[in-house]
């Protein structure tokens, strides 16, 4: 086996362990989700067993990541990201900025006027206003967020957001499906 392939395969186990731990999962719960035995999962993570497609595919599904993210396949071809905007109802536009489904999804959105309709779902959202004014309703509370301001909230609370007036609002929208929160640093890190 060539050195590059061996290094690629050796990196999969630690990536699997990191993904599992980041999600707060035990080997037992992951085994239940994937149908792969605890001992096989442990041997994969420790590098004592080589990964195969029949093991990696259920793991990629369980972790909600693309298969090439687990393998860390080298980038090929053009490194530029080609964004594909999606037109939504009544003049709204959604541009996905993250390439793979994973812990946090990032979107740039232009939201046109629409009527508020509160929703709830599992996850955590982080909204940064680029232009315009954003109206955010969280339960019984209402906020107006201006350019350069951020809102962060648990999506299990009834919520809605859209333009504060008749003009569209442009935002960066981060969504963590498992309650992941954004970490914001406002200054240099403290020395370790």
Describe, in plain words, how this protein is organized in 3D.
With 192 residues, the chain is of the alpha+beta class. The protein is elongated and about 60 Å long. It has 5 helices and 9 strands, in the order H-H-H-H-H-E-E-E-E-E-E-E-E-E. Strand 5 (134-138) and strand 6 (141-145) form a beta hairpin. The chain has helices at 3-22, 27-34, 38-46, 53-63, 67-71, and strands at 86-87, 93-96, 105-111, 124-131, 134-138, 141-145, 150-154, 159-163, 169-176. A 6-stranded antiparallel sheet has the order 1-2-3-9-4-7, with no helix packed on it. Helix content is 28%, strand content 26%. Helix 1 (3-22) crosses helix 3 (38-46).
Attribute tags:
192 residues; 9 strands; 5 helices; alpha+beta
Amount of helix: 25-40%
Radius of gyration: 20 Å
- Rounded mean pLDDT is 82
Order of strands across the main sheet: 1-2-3-9-4-7
Identify the overall geometry: elongated
Number of helical segments?
5
Strand share of the residues? 25-35%
What's the structural blueprint in terms of helices and strands?
Elements: H1 3-22, H2 27-34, H3 38-46, H4 53-63, H5 67-71, E1 86-87, E2 93-96, E3 105-111, E4 124-131, E5 134-138, E6 141-145, E7 150-154, E8 159-163, E9 169-176
Antiparallel strand pairs: 1-2, 2-3, 3-9, 4-7, 4-9, 5-6, 5-8
Helix pairs in contact: 1-3
Question: What does this entry show, briefly?
Answer:
By secondary structure, the protein is an alpha+beta fold. The protein is built from five helices and nine strands. The chain is 28% helix and 26% strand.
């Amino acid at each position: 086996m060539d050195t590059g392939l061996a290094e690629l395969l050796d990196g999969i186990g630690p990536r699997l362990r990191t993904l599992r731990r980041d999600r707060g999962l035990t080997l037992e719960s992951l085994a239940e989700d994937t149908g792969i035995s605890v001992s096989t999962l442990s041997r994969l993570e420790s590098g004592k067993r080589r990964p195969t497609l029949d093991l990696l595919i259920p793991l990629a599904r369980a972790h909600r990541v693309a298969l090439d993210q687990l393998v860390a396949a080298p980038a090929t071809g053009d490194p530029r990201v080609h964004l594909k905007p999606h037109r939504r109802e009544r003049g709204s536009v959604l541009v996905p900025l993250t390439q793979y489904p994973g812990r946090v999804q990032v979107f740039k959105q232009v939201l046109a006027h629409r009527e508020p309709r509160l929703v709830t779902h599992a996850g955590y959202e982080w909204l940064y206003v680029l232009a315009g004014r954003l109206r955010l309703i969280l339960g019984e509370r209402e906020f107006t967020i201006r350019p350069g301001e951020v809102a962060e909230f648990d999506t299990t609370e009834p919520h809605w957001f859209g333009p504060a007036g008749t003009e569209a609002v442009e935002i960066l929208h981060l969504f963590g499906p498992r309650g992941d929160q954004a970490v914001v640093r406002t200054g240099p890190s403290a020395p370790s």
